[in-house]
Design goal:
345 residues; Rossmann fold; 7-stranded mixed β-sheet; 10 helices
């Protein structure tokens, strides 16, 4: 009996039965070994969904009100990436072999049928934790590039979900002299330090901007990479910036319901704010860069082992308990997790 993790109409994860179909030309069937959800994006279904009453008009590049507001999500498949072994190949498939270990996008389920064009080849040395870090790495690379971080810069990474933890490593590889991180969850701060960050702050207790002035001879940070999408984190990031510094907003901000002061350091220090969304094309460095190139470079670097990812995927739970674990580690107690992994073995 095959089951897939869904979000039910009552906003509770449930395991729903499904059946596999026959393969079409150019498709492969994969037996899933590991998988992982995408915490921040999937939490939209539990929190404020910006698309219930509005939609993004791609031609006008603006949000517009819906004529008929949507009322709620229907049942939604949960999960972001998977790693598995090819068990069946359709006609016309080339470049792959039976039993080959591959990765791809999809929900948490024990099998996947996918076109060969959407299958990612894994190097023999590549771990599954590295593979499921592919998606957060894309946005981390986009954020660091959009911030115009330069060799020797001091950087603060705000928010230490998977994107922030990867961004701290990207910043180091990009030549940052000092990498500071900030997150209220102790578990995530520890992971950042294990993976090469120099100093970690708790934004609920620390005046991050003031403390970073002490660490930089009153200069402040050249660059802030803000990945949490929290308005107070944005305010604190601006406070941490040096005169003329820039903050790249990678996290997806929702409607603001709290006071935020942009008239202090931001105004007096002439800071620059850029909103970074790696998937949006044309890229800021078009035509040299686009989202396809970001994805290619990210996958190549993961295959080479340039990033530490084993401690980012934590905790790891069994698929048959994934409905309960999703509620526990992602919805109710995020302080207990970094990026939840799922094993199907």
């Amino acid at each position: 009996m095959l089951k897939e993790l869904f979000l039910g109409l009552d906003k509770k994860p449930i395991l729903v039965e499904y059946s596999d179909r026959a393969l079409e030309e150019g498709e492969v069937k994969v037996k899933t070994i590991f998988g992982a959800p995408k915490h921040g994006t999937e939490l939209n279904v539990y929190q404020q969904d910006p698309f219930l009453k509005t939609y993004y008009d791609g031609e006008a590049c603006i949000f517009k009100k819906r004529d008929t507001p949507q009322t709620a999500y229907g049942e939604t498949a949960l999960g972001n990436m998977w790693v598995g072994e090819i068990t069946e190949m359709g006609q016309g498939v080339s470049g792959f072999s039976m039993g080959e270990r591959v990765a791809g996008y999809g929900s948490l389920r024990p099998t996947h049928i996918v076109n060969q064009k959407n299958v990612l080849k894994m190097a023999p040395r590549m771990s599954w934790q590295e593979a499921v870090s592919f998606d957060p790495l894309q946005f981390a690379i986009g954020g660091v590039r959009d911030s115009h971080l330069r060799f020797g810069d001091t950087v603060l990474v705000s928010g230490l979900g998977a994107i922030g933890l990867m961004a701290a490593q990207v910043a180091r590889l990009s030549g940052a002299y000092l990498v500071a991180v900030s997150d209220p969850i102790e578990k995530r701060r520890k992971v950042a330090l294990e993976n090469g960050a120099d100093i970690a702050f708790d934004p609920l207790k620390d005046d991050v901007g003031l403390l970073l002035r002490d660490k930089t001879d009153n200069l402040g940070c050249d660059v802030v990479i803000e990945t949490s999408g929290n308005y107070k984190a944005l305010e604190q990031g601006i406070r941490a910036l040096a005169y003329g510094g820039s903050i790249a907003c990678v996290g997806w901000f929702r409607e603001c319901h709290i006071p935020i002061n942009l008239g202090y350091e931001g105004h007096f220090n002439q800071n620059k704010i850029v909103f970074s969304r790696a998937v949006s094309d044309p890229n800021n460095d078009y035509p040299r860069w686009n989202f396809d190139r970001i994805c290619k470079e990210a996958w190549d670097m993961l295959n080479q082992g340039l990033f530490k990812c084993d401690n980012i995927v934590d905790p790891i739970v069994s698929f048959d308990k994934s409905d309960e674990a999703y509620i526990k580690y992602i919805v109710e107690h995020p302080e207990m997790s970094v990026k939840m992994g799922v094993t199907f073995c």
